[in-house]
């Protein structure tokens, strides 16, 4: 067994060395900002990037549609990660944030002016997500322990019940279905989702690899030490929630212009919050790119492989979805993509 | 000129009076021992200074500023740093990373900043762990973990260093070496308060000692005055008999 892995790492090590000049070029330019790669990791990152960018040219309609949805959920999973994954203050209510943005867009169009331009509704909706985020974060993040998680959980339950209570404005259970979609062209639509996702991924990776990310992780590991270091842990916890709310708002806006409407089940129900967590956990919490990978993995599996290829019923698809998440929680707690990343590090030359 | 003034500080936990109307001052450049048997309130005084606990009554002044109601990070940024009795490094970060955290600015827009590798090396070198910057905390022997705690405190550039049982669990050679390190800190202008329940070794290091017993201040004085004082002897022997 060990001789087989030795032989494998001889081959991969050589492969890694031949790719190293490419990775070195990247490291020289960006290594200081996002961390250094070895040759194999470089191929994983840029191979995936190339695959994602060219998907409409080689993928089937079903696959591209699944990847379009995955791009939106990747934004949610990464946004959840920069707050919950990094600080360890687990939010069970992140769908409130994307829901706030999506409902703001739909309610502006439904109640204010159907002709309202996206140039108005999009920034206002993202701002709404930020405001709701601060409303949750300011009182709850001063508490420590499980209270924060419970408050986010209750927040999503309240928000979910509030929608039908104001059905004249919110459309009640069936929601508002008069939102304009970005485009009906599936290829253009794909890029409408992929480009913001890549921007969010780069921005959050940069922040996560900066001092800010180091402080957020330190809050998770030892909050008292952060205060003892002269750093206001409470301020950084609230900041991480605000930082998470903005891309959550972006994702919410993308989702409402993808589906062409809002309703409480698709946008707010607590299940949606748990799905974001599942994607982040499956990919690997506190790594930003892990949750991105987790979102693509789970959604392509659920919406394309199990639907188009395997023709399974919806309950069967969801059962497999959650069974897989459970299996990762039990057997690969650090997440599939973190495992893969460290594997490439070991099988490559292993940079320190 | 006193740099730290503890003025009639009282700390109650419900019905328990942990610190009762304690006052003392520390002058700039002094090394002061805060001693007393276990449970006498020494660490509670430190926790009050660091705002881990709110004081029930009284005030704490550092360098002319009332820091009683400051929050922990504000106390640290005003120039006070504490080395806890318990070591609590972040296990997922190497020694260098643990020190680096203590140099980062308290700013949500500061993506860079913090100490350079050379500066981190310097902090580590002041307590002789400069060749262990890459090691993980769980690989270090006890004495080096304790040194890391001191290096972290140094990295906040304190004027006043509070040391809580710094010699606990160390052998005689390590204690002697660490005491010499503290002397060097003082020569570089730092003021130090050391908590210890063990009077013996501490008395050669400190200029003065404040003795607590059951939350009350028993006395303060030079090491000779303290060791010869019958009340101090009784407090220590008393607890020995009870134990």
Topology:
The complex is a heterodimer of chains A (352) and B (243).
Chain A: H1 2-34, H2 39-58, H3 61-87, H4 95-112, H5 118-140, H6 147-165, H7 167-170, H8 186-208, H9 211-228, H10 233-259, H11 264-267, H12 270-283, H13 289-309, H14 314-331, H15 336-347
Chain B: E1 2-13, E2 16-27, E3 31-35, H1 42-49, E4 57-62, E5 65-66, H2 72-77, E6 80-83, H3 95-101, H4 117-125, H5 142-155, E7 160-164, H6 172-187, E8 191-196, H7 199-202, E9 208-213, E10 216-221, H8 223-228, H9 230-242
Parallel strand pairs in B: 3-8, 3-9, 6-7, 7-8
Antiparallel strand pairs in B: 1-2, 1-4, 4-5, 9-10
What would you say about this model in short?
With 352 residues, chain A is an all-alpha fold. Chain A is built from 15 helices and no strands. Chain A has one domain (2-347): ABC transporter involved in vitamin B12 uptake, BtuC (Orthogonal Bundle), CATH 1.10.3470.
Please tag this protein with its features:
heterodimer; A: 352 residues; mainly alpha; ABC transporter involved in vitamin B12 uptake, BtuC; 15 helices; 80% helix; globular; B: 243 residues; alpha/beta; Rossmann fold; 2 domains; 6-stranded mixed sheet; 4-stranded antiparallel sheet; 9 helices; 10 strands; ABC_transp_permease (chain A)
- Count of DSSP strands of chain A: 0
Q: Tell me, briefly, the overall form of chain A.
A: globular
CATH architecture of the largest domain in chain B: 3-Layer(aba) Sandwich
Which quaternary structure do these chains form?
heterodimer
The CATH class of chain A: Mainly Alpha
Radius of gyration of chain A: 21 Å
Strand content of chain A: under 5%
Q: Per DSSP, what share of the residues of chain B sits in E-state strands of 2 or more residues?
A: 25-35%
Secondary-structure-derived class of chain B: alpha/beta
Report the major sheet of chain A. Answer: none
CATH architecture of chain A: Orthogonal Bundle
What's the CATH class label of the largest domain in chain B? Answer: Alpha Beta
Low-confidence stretches of chain A: none
Mean pLDDT of chain A: 92
CATH topology of the largest domain in chain B: Rossmann fold
Count the helices of chain B. How many? Answer: 9
The count of DSSP E runs of length 2 or more, i.e. the number of strands of chain B, is 10
What separation lies between the terminal Cα atoms of chain B?
Answer: 40 Å
Q: Could you state the CATH homologous superfamily of the largest domain in chain B?
A: P-loop containing nucleotide triphosphate hydrolases
